[in-house]
């Protein structure tokens, strides 16, 4: 394992859904500051559940999750919202408010920093509005600030979602299948954007992907899940070509040590 | 670099808001605020007191003028009226339905206009006209519901006829069938479940209308209600309202259940 | 050899359909008996009915100027009633939506209240409000507010239940409060539905408000009551025609606006 400061720690995390399905099976995983981690695995292997446990969009059944040393499992109300504020997330379906303008969507990323009443009256500071425009330029969509979100193509919407995520000034960026709804060309743009954030702003990035080749191209570390279990965990330099067959075939049940 | 909004982007919301405000300033100017009477407090108190102490003795007295008998009569008005109306609506529906593509639709348009007129014609006025004809009582209520419902049922039936799958009809024509064969073997089987469902829906509405037709003397629970309100007999008002609420809820539930089973 | 599959006894005789027809027929006959349906009386009295109808075919056009003000008042009542009803409806709709409020007790209570309100016919509410606040358009406005509240809350919460949950997840992940989630992720998605339902409810309220006056709750219905009371059916005809025109005009306008919202 790479030396560094842990930023996300999963300790003995289990998740069983009310219908009995096992989502996560005794996960132990430490992600360090500045890593670009790609999680691979089949659909239903628990990739989404793992990401959503990290910012507690899903509750876990047992175990402990620490974000920057602070437990998110027990956090409540304001405290929980403050932890979430530092963790940005982008989604497979972009999750933009399609009827709102791009500017409003980007500012939505900032609401955690304001008291509720101020946001309701639209009282975002001039600095934040400037920042929204700047973030949009960072993903090369500066001229779309006042367009409605549903006028944009899928790739553009995902980049708006990245701009929105940046408004949180996050330390961590979670991305759940960010390119699953995109074509190959826009896929590269979005992945390049994520890489840039990781390298230029030092944001820790955790991405769920289906594509092994993309994982090898962008990740600094690859983690594999199968049926809720952690079955693979290697730094990019140690990844062998044949490794991924095990994750996808399910022939090898044991955790591979890097 | 900052992007300038276009004039419309900047002001569209404000322009609509302004139109909205103007309309509402005008609307409020027309309604004198007369609500707060000098004795409003006292009145409200006695109303609330009455409403929370319903007159349960009225539920059943055995003389046929009690709550249960009149609620049953209300249901009977709604049921008889709706069934009669459903049968009467069928020819109107086929008159108003646009079943042929292209060309002018004089026939169906005139049918639709007729149904709109019937729908808009106030049910209360219709009830009063029937009272003149057959005298006050539940029969006038049945007639009012039967004829007034044609306006809505005829329209809904016509839409159902317009929306049916046309391919079975084509198949029958292609096999050498007549228009009458189409009606019997394709159209009617397709629309009957739809008609029944719409009739049930209309019955729910008819129960509500039947419970107010008594306000003008066309039978049902409306008459004792208006009498109790007129004499400020709040415990009696309360029990009648309660009865209507229970009746309507039960009917909605049953009808909703049956409609779900149909589809 | 072709063998035709045998129908079961129930299939052969359409037992289900027959039973249902028998039930409906029995209820129909019982209802007719209970309400004193008498086709003979209807036929003999029919000329009375037509008598009124003939009088209505000769409308008293000189009465038109007297209907303008009440018609305007009718529209104003409908506008205010719809607005008040919709404003009250928004928080109730949010609390009644399955995808926003997971607490079944809160949701159940709210839905129970909404169902209760929807059972009350408009004219009945009018009768009660006239007794409470006195004769006049105020009673009409209150009636329409309550009436449209019941209807529009249901339309609203059903609209909320169809929204895309993605933005809600995104806002929650960004650390938003419940109120912020509703404001930024829910309302922008249902805004157009709300406006459309607002207009639809306004149409229904215009129809309803034309008869509320019959019980003294303001608007054109007052003239209905007066002309009928004076047996001036030629004037009743004018009122009915006026009502018809208003309803058609409002429906047309509202339909156009609603189409633009799609």
Automatic annotation (TrEMBL), chain A:
The record's CDD domains line, in alphabetical order, gives: ABC_PhnC_transporter
Ordered alphabetically, the record's keywords are: ATP-binding, Cell membrane, Membrane, Nucleotide-binding, Phosphonate transport, Translocase, Transport
Q: Which GO terms describe its molecular function?
A: ATP binding
Q: Where is the ABC transporter domain?
A: 8-252
For this protein, the record's Gene3D superfamilies field holds: P-loop containing nucleotide triphosphate hydrolases
Q: Which PROSITE patterns match?
A: ABC_TRANSPORTER_1, ABC_TRANSPORTER_2
Which PANTHER family does this UniProt record tie to the protein? AMINO ACID IMPORT ATP-BINDING PROTEIN, PHOSPHONATES IMPORT ATP-BINDING PROTEIN PHNC
Please identify the protein, giving its name as recorded.
Glutamine transport ATP-binding protein GlnQ
What is the source species?
A: Periweissella fabaria
Q: Which gene encodes it?
A: glnQ_3
Automatic annotation (TrEMBL), chain B:
Q: Name any one Pfam family assigned in the record.
A: BPD_transp_1
In what residue span(s) does the ABC transmembrane type-1 domain sit? Answer: 71-255
Subcellular compartments: Cell envelope; Cell membrane; Membrane
Q: How does it sit in the membrane?
A: Multi-pass membrane protein
- Superkingdom field: Bacteria
InterPro entries documented for this protein: MetI-like (IPR000515), MetI-like_sf (IPR035906), PhnE/PtxC (IPR005769)
Primary location recorded for the protein, binned into one broad class: other
**Keyword Ion transport appears in the UniProt entry:** no
Q: Is DNA-binding tagged as a keyword?
A: no
Q: Which UniProt keywords apply?
A: Membrane, Transmembrane, Transmembrane helix, Transport
Transmembrane feature ranges: 12-31, 67-92, 212-231, 237-258
Q: Which NCBIfam families match?
A: PhnE
Q: Which family does it belong to?
A: Belongs to the binding-protein-dependent transport system permease family.
The protein in question is named: Phosphate-import permease protein PhnE
Organism whose genome encodes this protein: Periweissella fabaria
Query: Taxonomic classification, please?
Result: Bacteria, Bacillati, Bacillota, Bacilli, Lactobacillales
UniProtKB/TrEMBL annotation, chain C:
- Transmembrane segments annotated in the record for this chain: 71-95, 181-200, 236-254
ABC transmembrane type-1 domain location is 71-254
Give its localization. Answer: Cell membrane
**How does the record classify its membrane topology?**
Multi-pass membrane protein
Q: Which UniProt keywords apply?
A: Cell membrane, Membrane, Transmembrane, Transmembrane helix, Transport
Please give the CDD domains that the UniProt record associates with this protein.
TM_PBP2
Q: Which Gene3D superfamilies match?
A: MetI-like
Q: Which InterPro entries match?
A: MetI-like (IPR000515), MetI-like_sf (IPR035906), PhnE/PtxC (IPR005769)
Main localisation, per the record? membrane
Q: Which family does it belong to?
A: Belongs to the binding-protein-dependent transport system permease family.
Tell me the protein's name.
Phosphate-import permease protein PhnE
* Originating gene: phnE_2
